[in-house]
Every structure is written in structure tokens, then in C-alpha cells.
């Protein structure tokens, strides 16, 4: 390789320093902990002046609690095309390797259900209703693979087929050979079975960011707009409280009581440090250089946020998924916050 | 050149980022007999060939194609290679080795997952990270867990035969030490590994019909063939006679376990009348929890309800369901099962 | 019950019937036979006579039990698959693709958990080294070295108060509310999210 001498020297210097973080700390802490163990616990140690200039004892940072309130995903995710194709492929293989279906265990002879079964098995050749028309044994059992563009692997198609099977008895127009007692003599479909609700809800179509029915496959996070007009997670200063109890208080004060929430655990999941351009003088005479926000994780199980009468001056709220949050918040805030949020 | 002067390790770290994801064929100094073909194999990619056109795809009919080649109803010629997997395993040195279980020609081939269970998806998206947050324990950087000391005691005393004697058995009941809980990281979050459904029927010792029905019921509920067991010893209190077939179990893994648990939690348990929940003191100390269902509760499973009349009356057994988890103690397993949806009552001892 | 319909499809393993069902030839059997009456008609291929001799006294076996026994030990068992070369190649490709896909998925899940863990770790480390004014102190002055979070450093209780509170696990192990433990479903509920929940 043709690298210049200077570049090589620079890279080598950087490479020499590329030890992993924890090993680097072990090496530095070895001396620190030895020193700590050796230090006597009295005032003489405090008179020792370290070589690095210590921050002045009048400086401070404001400590705040933030809450990352999230609604977990409500429905299963969309399957990758490989996954849905693979699952159908395996179910077709199952047709070829499974024991035969024990028909008389489930359908008594000469009942309406038995006749229906006989009709339907001729049409679909297999007890399974959602793998297409395929028979695991016989002349054409070798042809178990689906062709390109086949719809059988799609979950919506499979659900349609199951519902169709439940609704129709398979009787054709000329099929009046056996008058079976108890069966309605109708060639038309029986009462319609309720279709399941669609996975893409109204809120998705309208893109209603205040609704919690949107993006049911993803985790939605609560963002609020503060007085400065910035979108952040709800936060507030606190004192004489643990982070866990402060988080609960922040939630009720900012978003109202009508939310069934649960603050997960006592430990924070992340932090954000904001440095002010000009330090502020606090009441206790300290010089506040900035604010540190420690975020707690919370989950919502029911209810909706209500910003009326909140004491933190919040004007608006939104429920957004991870990449949408990135679009709303500031760059430095996102940098501190992104590792806390879930991909799905 | 400067490169040759640096030691090997630095050279490797230097070019760690420069190394591309896909290894391009580098011109090497040594040439093997296979150097030329390797270059061709590495450069080829199946994605460089476009997929077949739509008309070609639509016009493809495998049955027609086969009929054209078959020339009527003539039997197919025997293929040149008739492979039958060996029925018995004769050791690692035998020339005929059984194929891997993933091979469809294997006698043990079982078709793979048919779905992505919703319990597994819930665990992966929600529960795992919440458990991590709940049980997070902070260790400062550079902290190394101390090496586990010798847990079995030595024989201590004047007695001359104490020297070199095997270590003493563990304290308390049983001959197995309890599991040590390792420090919690993102890699050892407790998860459900296995579910065992076990049904013991003392009447089966007289009349085998009870055992067959228990086997059928367990197979219907779990989608796994049940295995029967004999009683190991005579126990008058439970009516066991040694050597008689008395119970059936089935072990569920992965997809089966997740489907069974989601069915249990969402369909069966809510239908049980006046059910207090699972006692919170359940747990074997190693992260496995158990709950029991009576015969009426088992009849609530959809697979039994659909053909309840096919079973003789009063012969459907109850069962015990044991959920094996990754956890190493009771409270972690308790937390995991709570977050999945099993209601508990009482105090966790 | 006519078990002969299966015979043409599979290769039977062992004897066809084990449980005393009379294999009556078709011309002798009545067209409709109720399942509750015992089978008394015999022929030279039937084993009913022998089995009736064995079961003395008491009612004959419930036909439901006989049926369950037949279905459990079904005589027709499929044999291992035998693929042609190209079909086998396609299966092998699918298997490899699936293994790769699973590996990528597992790796992505691990990485996500690792990111969350590292974020928590950074926050807790910051708390450990932070005093009540929000300023960071040096490692020597902070407490919590080693596994014991309650250990105090040189500066005493001022430093890391929030850290010590965060590491308390009291009340954590029974705290999961039952409403949280709701499995994802394939399709949403009819009522959707309950926006109108109120704290009673």
C-alpha cells in the first residue's frame, strides 16, 4: 500500500490507542483504585492539590427527570417476504411428512359436517385450508413448490381462505343427492363471519399523530412541545426525590391523570446534557452552567395525554415512532436519546 | 515502505476500517492449484442475473412440462442414485453416516417453523428490554467479577483419611448445588426455553384406556407426541405401583411452546371460573415454574372443546405445566412470567 | 369405520388393525351399522372371536376408546422424503437462506439490546459520579466501586445519592401490572385503544 509516512505515523499513533474502552479504564483505574485504597479518610487528603484545575465549587448543573413514555406494539409485525414464503414452504413439506388426518375423530359419520368435509376435501385435496390446492401423497405430490407471484404465502390471503371455508359449506347447485336432516337446504352462503379488523387503522390513513391507534406495529413515544417551542420528552426539575417517583410526578403534572402508566424500574435509561451559552445565577448563589436530564422509561396501558392545566407550560403533544422522533427533535438531543428508543 | 516497519498487530488495526465488507480477491503472492477457479467463484453473484420475465413466469406449468417428458403413463426410470438414510447409528467411523436432521432425506427431519409466534414477538420487542431495565445492575467500568470460589467444602480435621478425600457433598437436601446468578447484561436476560406438559393418571395402572386418552389429550393440546412413563417406585399415598405405565409427558420447544403458552394465557386461563391465579411460591429455585390444571380446565382448550364428545366422559385428565426458563433464580422467573401475563397470588417465598 | 380407504395411498407398516375391529368383507357388512352395538358378525379373517374370549365380564370397550387407540397408533406412517437433485439443491438453498436470515435477525436484536444497555450504563455511571449540585467528581471521591452500589466514597453521602436510590431493587420483583402483560395479536381489537380511560 502506498501510504505516506505522515499518514502512517498518525494512523499508527491512533491505532496504538485503539484499546477497548473497558480495558483502557482498567488500566487507568488500577492506579486510581490503588490510590483510593491508600487514601486515609480524613481532612489531610483534601489538602492535596491535584495537577488538574478542579471546577469551582460554585458551579452547578440543574438536575431534571425526563420520562420516555411509550406505547408498546399492539399487533405482530408484517412478515418479511422470505419469512412468509419459508413458512408456507415448510407447511407444504409438512403435508408430505405428517401422519394422515384422523377424520373420524373430529367428524362423526353421516352428520352434516361429515358431508361438508367430503365435499371440501375433493376441492382442496388437503385438510389444511390455507396452503392452496395440494395433496401430499399421490401422483403430483412432487409439485409442492409455489410458482412465482403466488398469493398463498400472504397472510391476508390465508385469512380470507379460512373465513371462506367457515362461511361456505361447499355445496354446489345440483348437489341434492342426500337430504340430510338438520342442515339448512340453502345453496347460498350461511351467515357471514366477522372479518378481523384491518391492520392499517383509520388513524394510520389520516396520519393522526395524537391518536394511539396509529402504527400499531411500532412503539410510539410521547413528545411534548415546551415553552421555547422545542419538541422534547416531558421533563421537570426535582429535589429530595428518587428518579422513579419524580418520573411518576412529571407524568401526572404534564399529561394529566387519565393515563394508566407504569414507570419501569428505578434506573435511568439515558441522559442528556444541555450547556447554556451564558451561565445562570441560581437562588442559592451557584452558577448554573447547564442542565442534565436523566430519562426514565415508562409504559402506557390505557388513556390519553391531556395537556390542559399543566404546570410546565407545555403546548402540544404527539405520539411518534422512532424515526419520526428523529425528524422532530434537535440534533444534539437526538444524539443522546436515540439509543434508548426501540427499533420496533 | 513504512508498512513493513510496523509490527503485525498495528498493521491489522490500521486497516481494520479500510477492509471492505466483501472480500475482494487480492492478488496473493502464492499460487495454489485452485487460485484461478476461486477468483471466478468469488466474483459471481446470483443477484447480478435478473429474475425471469413475467410471461415466462406465467407460462411455466410444471405438471404440463412433466407430462410432455413422461410419454404417457410409463413408470419413471429408477434414478441413478437411490439414497436411503441408515436406520441405526453405527458410530462415527462407519462409512454410512446419517444425514443432518435439517436434510429432508433424514428419518428425523421435522418441517421447520410454520409461523413467527406472537409471544416471541412480544418478548423480543417489549418484554426483553423492560426486563433489562427492571433488573439492571450497574458495574463501574473496569469491574471484573471475582473468580467463583470453591463451593464444596473439604474434610477438615485430624483424621488421617481426610487427606485427598473427595470434597464433601453440598449443604442441605439433595446433591446438587444451587445455580449462581451471573451479573445481568443484555446477553443473559431470562427467556422461556421449554414447556413440559405432564399428566399422571393412577387409574391407568389398571386400565390402559386412561393412558391412551391422556396421551391423546396431551398430544392434541401441545402438537407434540406424548411419551409414556412407568412408575419408578411404590408410593402408597399416590397409588403408584412400581413398573406400571402411569403418566405421559410432552416437551415443547420454540414455536410449539410459544403457541401453547399464548393459548393458555389468552384462551384457557380467563375461562376458568373462580380461579385465584398461580401461587407465587411456585418455583424450583432454578428458574422453572409450574402450574396445575384440573380436568375441567383442560377441557377448555380449543382442541379438546371442538370434539369433546369423542372422549369418554370423566376420562379427560388434568395436567401440570412446567415452564422452564433461562433464569437462575425464582424471582427472575417470576418477573418473566408476570410480564408474559400469568396472574399470581400470594407471597413469593 | 372403513379403514381400507387409506391402504391404497400409503404403504402399511405392520398389521392393519390391532384393536379387535372386525375386518368384515364388504359384501357381508350391513350398509348402515350403528357404532354403539357390538360387532357380533364374524368371518374367517376376523379376530373378534379371540378378543371376545379374552374380555370376560363387564361391558365391551367403549368404541370411543377403540377409536382413540387406532388414531394414536395409526398403522400408516409416511416415509422419509426423497428429492431429485435439483429439488434438493433448491431445498438446500432455501435452508441456507433461512439460516442466514435468522442469523441477521438475531444479530439485529442483540445489537438493539446492547445499545439500550450501553445507554443505561452511561447514565448510571454519570449518576454515580455526580454530586448534589450536578457536577462530576473524580473516581476516588465517588462511591460505588465494585459490585456494592451502597459503598460510599471519600466525599460521603453527597456524591451519588440518586445512583444509590436507582440501584435499589426493593419492590421491583412483583411490580409488573397485569394490564401491561398483553400479548401482541395478529389483528387489532374492535374497539382499538381506550383513549377515554379515567383514573377512578
Automatic annotation (TrEMBL), chain A:
Keywords: Mitochondrion, Ribonucleoprotein, Ribosomal protein, Transit peptide
Any one of the GO CC terms: mitochondrial inner membrane
Species this protein is from: Periconia macrospinosa
Stretches the record annotates as Disordered: 168-196
Domain Large ribosomal subunit protein mL46 N-terminal: 61-204
Ribosomal protein listed as a keyword: yes
Family, similarity comment: Belongs to the mitochondrion-specific ribosomal protein mL46 family.
A Pfam family recorded for this sequence: MRP-L46
GO molecular function per UniProt: structural constituent of ribosome
Gene3D superfamilies per record: Nucleoside Triphosphate Pyrophosphohydrolase (3.90.79.10)
Basic and acidic residues bias: start-end ranges: 186-196
The protein's name: Large ribosomal subunit protein mL46
Localization annotation: Mitochondrion
Automatic annotation (TrEMBL), chain B:
Record region (Disordered): 17-105
Large ribosomal subunit protein uL5 N-terminal domain ranges (all copies): 188-241
Comp. bias regions, Basic and acidic residues: 33-42, 55-66
GO MF terms, alphabetically ordered: structural constituent of ribosome
Domain Large ribosomal subunit protein uL5 C-terminal positions: 246-344
InterPro entries with a match to the protein in the record: Ribosomal_uL5 (IPR002132), Ribosomal_uL5_C (IPR031309), Ribosomal_uL5_dom_sf (IPR022803), Ribosomal_uL5_N (IPR031310)
Recorded superkingdom: Eukaryota
Gene Ontology process terms (BP): translation
Keywords from the UniProt entry: Ribonucleoprotein, Ribosomal protein
Record's GO cellular component terms: ribonucleoprotein complex; ribosome
Pfam families, sorted: Ribosomal_L5 (PF00281), Ribosomal_L5_C (PF00673)
PANTHER family for this protein: 60S RIBOSOMAL PROTEIN L11-RELATED (PTHR11994)
Family note: Belongs to the universal ribosomal protein uL5 family.
Name this protein carries in UniProt: Ribosomal protein L5
The species this protein was found in: Periconia macrospinosa
Top-level taxonomy: Eukaryota, Fungi, Dikarya, Ascomycota, Pezizomycotina
UniProtKB/TrEMBL annotation, chain C:
Gene3D superfamilies: 6.10.250.3440
Gene Ontology MF term list: structural constituent of ribosome
One GO process term, biological-process aspect: mitochondrial translation
Top-level taxon of origin: Eukaryota
Extent of Polar residues compositional bias: 26-51
Region (Disordered) residue spans: 26-60
GO cellular component, one term: mitochondrion
PANTHER family, alphabetized: 54S RIBOSOMAL PROTEIN L28, MITOCHONDRIAL, LARGE RIBOSOMAL SUBUNIT PROTEIN ML40
Protein name: Uncharacterized protein
Organism, as annotated: Periconia macrospinosa
Amino acid at each position: 500500500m502506498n501510504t505516506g509516512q505522515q499518514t502512517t505515523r498518525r494512523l499508527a499513533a491512533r491505532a496504538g490507542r485503539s484499546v477497548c474502552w473497558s480495558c483502557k479504564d482498567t488500566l487507568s483505574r488500577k492506579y486510581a483504585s490503588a490510590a483510593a485504597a491508600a487514601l486515609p479518610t480524613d481532612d489531610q487528603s483534601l489538602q492535596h492539590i491535584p495537577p488538574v484545575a478542579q471546577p469551582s465549587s460554585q458551579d452547578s448543573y440543574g438536575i431534571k427527570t425526563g420520562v420516555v413514555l411509550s406505547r408498546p406494539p399492539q399487533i405482530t409485525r408484517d412478515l418479511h417476504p422470505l419469512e412468509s414464503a419459508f413458512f408456507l414452504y415448510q407447511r407444504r413439506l409438512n403435508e408430505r411428512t405428517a401422519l394422515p388426518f384422523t377424520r373420524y375423530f373430529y367428524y362423526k359419520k353421516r352428520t352434516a359436517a361429515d358431508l361438508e368435509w367430503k365435499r371440501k376435501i375433493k376441492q382442496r385435496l388437503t385438510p389444511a385450508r390455507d396452503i392452496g390446492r395440494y395433496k401430499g401423497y399421490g401422483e403430483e405430490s412432487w409439485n409442492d413448490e409455489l410458482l412465482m407471484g403466488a398469493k398463498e404465502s400472504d397472510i391476508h390471503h390465508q385469512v380470507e381462505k379460512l373465513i371462506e371455508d367457515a362461511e361456505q359449506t361447499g355445496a354446489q347447485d345440483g348437489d341434492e343427492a342426500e337430504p340430510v336432516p338438520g342442515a339448512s337446504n340453502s345453496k347460498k352462503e350461511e351467515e357471514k363471519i366477522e372479518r378481523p379488523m384491518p391492520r392499517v387503522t383509520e388513524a394510520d390513513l389520516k396520519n393522526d399523530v395524537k391518536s394511539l391507534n396509529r402504527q400499531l406495529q411500532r412503539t410510539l413515544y410521547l413528545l411534548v412541545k415546551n415553552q421555547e417551542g422545542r419538541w422534547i420528552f416531558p421533563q421537570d426539575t426535582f429535589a429530595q426525590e428518587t428518579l422513579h417517583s419524580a418520573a411518576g410526578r412529571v407524568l401526572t403534572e404534564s399529561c394529566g391523570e387519565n393515563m394508566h402508566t407504569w414507570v419501569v424500574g428505578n434506573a435511568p435509561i439515558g441522559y442528556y446534557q444541555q450547556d447554556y451559552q451564558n451561565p445562570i445565577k441560581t437562588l442559592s448563589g451557584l452558577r448554573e452552567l447547564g442542565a442534565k436530564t436523566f430519562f426514565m422509561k415508562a409504559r402506557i396501558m390505557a388513556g390519553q395525554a391531556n395537556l390542559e392545566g399543566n404546570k410546565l407550560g407545555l403546548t402540544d403533544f404527539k405520539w411518534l415512532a422512532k424515526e419520526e422522533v428523529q425528524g422532530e427533535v434537535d440534533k444534539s438531543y437526538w444524539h443522546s436519546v436515540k439509543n434508548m428508543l426501540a427499533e420496533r | 515502505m513504512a508498512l513493513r516497519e510496523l509490527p503485525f498487530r498495528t498493521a491489522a488495526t490500521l486497516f481494520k476500517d479500510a477492509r471492505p465488507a466483501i472480500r475482494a480477491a487480492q492478488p496473493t503472492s502464492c499460487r495454489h492449484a485452485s487460485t484461478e477457479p476461486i477468483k471466478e467463484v468469488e466474483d459471481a453473484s446470483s443477484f447480478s442475473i435478473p429474475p425471469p420475465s413475467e410471461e415466462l413466469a406465467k407460462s411455466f406449468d410444471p405438471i404440463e412440462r412433466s407430462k410432455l417428458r413422461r410419454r404417457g403413463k410409463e413408470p419413471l426410470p429408477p434414478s441413478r442414485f437411490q439414497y436411503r438414510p441408515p436406520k441405526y447409528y453405527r458410530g462415527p467411523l462407519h462409512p454410512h453416516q446419517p444425514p443432518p436432521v435439517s436434510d429432508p432425506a433424514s428419518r428425523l427431519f421435522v418441517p421447520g417453523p410454520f409461523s413467527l409466534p406472537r409471544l416471541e414477538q412480544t418478548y423480543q420487542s417489549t418484554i426483553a428490554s423492560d426486563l433489562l431495565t427492571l433488573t439492571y445492575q450497574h458495574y463501574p467500568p473496569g469491574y471484573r467479577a471475582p473468580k467463583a470460589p470453591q463451593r464444596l467444602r473439604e474434610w477438615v480435621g485430624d483424621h488421617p483419611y481426610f487427606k485427598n478425600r473427595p470434597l464433601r457433598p453440598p449443604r442441605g437436601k439433595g446433591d446438587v448445588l444451587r445455580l449462581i446468578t451471573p451479573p445481568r447484561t443484555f446477553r443473559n436476560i431470562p427467556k422461556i426455553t421449554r414447556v413440559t406438559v405432564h399428566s399422571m393418571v393412577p387409574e391407568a395402572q389398571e386400565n390402559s384406556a386412561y393412558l391412551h386418552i391422556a396421551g391423546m389429550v396431551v398430544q392434541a393440546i401441545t402438537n407434540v407426541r406424548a411419551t409414556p412413563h412407568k412408575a419408578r417406585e411404590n408410593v402408597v399415598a399416590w397409588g403408584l405401583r412400581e413398573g406400571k405405565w402411569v403418566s405421559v409427558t410432552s416437551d415443547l420447544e420454540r414455536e410449539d411452546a410459544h403457541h401453547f403458552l399464548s393459548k393458555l394465557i389468552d384462551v384457557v386461563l380467563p375461562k376458568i371460573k373462580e380461579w385465584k391465579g398461580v401461587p407465587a411460591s411456585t418455583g424450583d429455585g432454578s428458574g422453572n415454574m409450574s402450574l396445575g390444571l384440573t380436568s375441567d380446565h383442560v377441557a377448555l382448550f380449543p382442541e379438546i372443546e371442538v370434539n369433546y364428545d369423542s372422549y369418554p366422559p370423566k376420562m379427560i385428565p388434568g395436567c401440570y405445566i412446567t415452564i422452564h426458563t433461562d433464569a437462575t433464580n425464582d424471582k427472575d422467573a417470576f418477573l418473566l412470567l408476570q410480564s408474559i401475563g400469568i396472574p399470581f397470588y400470594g407471597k413469593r417465598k | 369405520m372403513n379403514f381400507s380407504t387409506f391402504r391404497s395411498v400409503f404403504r402399511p407398516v405392520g398389521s392393519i388393525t390391532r384393536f379387535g375391529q372386525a375386518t368384515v368383507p364388504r359384501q357381508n357388512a350391513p350398509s348402515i351399522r350403528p357404532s354403539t352395538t357390538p360387532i357380533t358378525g364374524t368371518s374367517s379373517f376376523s379376530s373378534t372371536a379371540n378378543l371376545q374370549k379374552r374380555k370376560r365380564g363387564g361391558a365391551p370397550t367403549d368404541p370411543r376408546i377403540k377409536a382413540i387407540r387406532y388414531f394414536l397408533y395409526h398403522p400408516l406412517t409416511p416415509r422419509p422424503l426423497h428429492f431429485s437433485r435439483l429439488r434438493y439443491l433448491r431445498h438446500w438453498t432455501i435452508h441456507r437462506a433461512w439460516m442466514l436470515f435468522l442469523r441477521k435477525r438475531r444479530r439485529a436484536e442483540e445489537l438493539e439490546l446492547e445499545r439500550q444497555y450501553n445507554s443505561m450504563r452511561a447514565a448510571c455511571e454519570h449518576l454515580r459520579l455526580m454530586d448534589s449540585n450536578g457536577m462530576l467528581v473524580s473516581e476516588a471521591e465517588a462511591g460505588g466501586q465494585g459490585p456494592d452500589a451502597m459503598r460510599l466514597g471519600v466525599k460521603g453521602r453527597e456524591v451519588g445519592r440518586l445512583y444509590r436510590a436507582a440501584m435499589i431493587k426493593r419492590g421491583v420483583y412483583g411490580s409488573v401490572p397485569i394490564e401491561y402483560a398483553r400479548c401482541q395479536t395478529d389483528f387489532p381489537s374492535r374497539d382499538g385503544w381506550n383513549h377515554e380511560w379515567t383514573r377512578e
